[in-house]
Amino acid sequence: MFDKEYDVIVVGAGHAGAEAAAAAANLGSKTLLVTMNLQTIGQMSCNPAMGGIAKGQIVREIDALGGYSGIISDKSAIQFKMLNKSKGPAMWSPRTQNDRMRFAEEWRLALERTPKVDFYQEMVSGLIIEGEKVCGVKTSLGIEIRSKSVVLTNGTFLNGLIHIGERQLGGGRAGEKAATGITEQLVDLGFESGRMKTGTPPRVDGRSLDYSKMIVQPGDEIPEKFSYTNTKALSHQRDCHMTHTSTLVHDLLREGFDRSPMFNGRIKSLGPRYCPSIEDKINRFADKDKHQLFVEPEGWDTVEVYVNGFSTSLPEDVQFKALRSVVGFENVKFFRPGYAIEYDYFPPTQLKHTLETKLINNLYFAGQINGTTGYEEAASQGLMAGINAHLKVKEESPLILNRDEAYIGVLIDDLITKGTEEPYRMFTSRAEYRTLLRQDNADIRLTPMGHKIGLASDSRLKRMEEKLKKSDAFVNFFRETSVVPEDINPILESVNSAPVKQSHKMFKSFSRPNVTMDHMRNLKSVADFIEKENIDGEVMEQTEIQVKYSGYIAKEKNNADKLQRLENIKIPENFDYRLLKSLSYEAREKLEAIRPVTISQASRISGVSPSDISVLLVFMGR
Ligand code: FAD
């Protein structure tokens, strides 16, 4: 029934498992994907969206290395937005709204088209361990399948417990059973495990909503896409909508608090701080009289709608009554209620940078099992675990990404060095080198690495090299070509920048605030260069960023050096962290609770990022 021995067995076909299986197989490993339900490959458990702030950068990085998440997101997108476009390019973050069913279908088809992936539908209930090495898996029906390595990507399924009001039921996701056996065996082997919690909002019938009372949230006028390959940008898009809660809604929700598992002590584990439930929001931010709700279609054709911002585990009748008081939701009908889920995870400090466990050789963990939350975080770990499982089996050097090379490097380094006690999600603020880690240059940073190990195709590399060659040439053009005052002054005046008296290199004026490529290309010599060298929009964007942000990039490197030198500075005993408004909320809370004595001690606290340390240093005049 099975091959005598697989190179890699991947357990679970969520975002982590799907990427892990694809990567290992595309690199040449004989791979088996065992999952509890083959109909739910690539299932989006929560919101039907990919990317967003810092997560969009991760999707681009996965794509640049040769993973599938970007391509699948593009193929199933119903709306595209580049978030944070009004800020600097380090903050630009692509996000798609996706057709949930198509997303899962595209994943399944992509894996079916991957020759070295075998499939099997079963629950893995244990691992075959010989000495200190994993040698395969055991299923709940007692079947043993042997392999040289195993990647566990069990998501929210390990001893999953669903909460809706006073009701509790075992399950890994609504309608799916929990996975048992693995945690118990790993704990017996000496692993530490913990519990975490996450939640999801109700899904409703779009036909019962009054969209005329809500604010339309359209996609970008000129939509882009995730993948650096030749996937297509959307030619038309679906709108989302926005509405908000009110004090009446909050009062109705509060009526159910005594029956809430969040408040009556039934849920004991910590949930995602940045994705709180609606009851958590009205409790924690009691002074706020409304919270935004984004009303997101679940696909092109379905009438099912996702109510983003209304995640809840309150009793169904309370959810329903409160939601009916939201503007536009007066006649709402439920498809399914919101719920919370508690599940086992393994503190990721038990892993190496390759995501292999320190305790058992050739056993890898990726995704929510490591205490993260989010599809993108899971998918990127899956990709790295799949790559490294393959490389180890083939006795090749591992692929480890550094903090200045990729958000994926930051994610994994944070996880394994700092650990996490609450669901970890990526933010731009977690990356100290975020001016380097942009969404536009993920291919330049990572495709050569993906190609070197054999995952990114030749055509990907060629495309990236061409883009780099052209943008370097274009930057040099600006460095070397002079412009006379008569030509540049009208541009400078149009952006309220002081006119110049002498001719100078174009780079200098282009670097000034508010001067953009759109201005510069009005100059004849620039327009001629664009035409002669066949410069496209992507190269123009890359060039513009290289010219305008070269100073910031140098400053960032300098800052990193400073951080190293000033590690042992003392923090005054009664230091008031509330004075530092630019500290993240999480950092302030933790610093206040732990009160570190030195900056270096502060930097080791989970949730205090290197950029928080920069804020402290600046305040102390260093
Ligand atoms: P999953 O996507 O959970 O996939 C796990 C896979 O493993 C499944 O295919 C399952 O069938 C399979 N599996 C598990 N155990 C076994 C076994 N023993 N044998 C065989 N197969 C097995 N993320 C956010 O960013 N924001 C949110 O607000 C949010 N809310 C969520 C709410 C809910 C209710 C849930 C369930 C998840 C939520 N998430 C949220 C998390 C998001 O869904 C996950 O981060 C992401 O799906 C994790 O991917 P994964 O691959 O690690 O696991």
Automatic annotation (TrEMBL):
Q: Where in the cell is it found?
A: Cytoplasm
Q: Would I find tRNA processing among this entry's keywords?
A: yes
Q: Which residues bind NAD(+)?
A: 271-285
Alphabetic keyword roster: Cytoplasm, FAD, Flavoprotein, NAD, tRNA processing
User: Which InterPro entries did the record assign?
Assistant: FAD/NAD-bd_sf, GIDA_C_N, MnmG, MnmG-rel, MnmG-rel_CS, MnmG_C, MnmG_C_subdom, MnmG_C_subdom_sf
Cofactor field: FAD
The positions annotated for binding FAD are G12, A13, G14, H15, A16, G17
Main localisation: cytoplasm
Q: Which Pfam family is an annotated match for this chain, by its short name?
A: SAM_GIDA_C
Q: Name one GO biological process term.
A: tRNA wobble uridine modification
Residues forming the tRNA uridine 5-carboxymethylaminomethyl modification enzyme C-terminal subdomain domain are 547-618
Q: Give GO MF terms, alphabetically.
A: flavin adenine dinucleotide binding
Q: Does the keyword Flavoprotein apply?
A: yes
This entry carries the following GO cellular component terms, namely: cytosol
Function, as annotated, reads: NAD-binding protein involved in the addition of a carboxymethylaminomethyl (cmnm) group at the wobble position (U34) of certain tRNAs, forming tRNA-cmnm(5)s(2)U34.
User: Could you tell me which PANTHER family the record lists for this protein?
Assistant: GLUCOSE INHIBITED DIVISION PROTEIN A, PROTEIN MTO1 HOMOLOG, MITOCHONDRIAL
Assembly and partners are described as: Homodimer. Heterotetramer of two MnmE and two MnmG subunits.
Record's protein name: tRNA uridine 5-carboxymethylaminomethyl modification enzyme MnmG
Q: Which organism is it from?
A: Cellulophaga fucicola
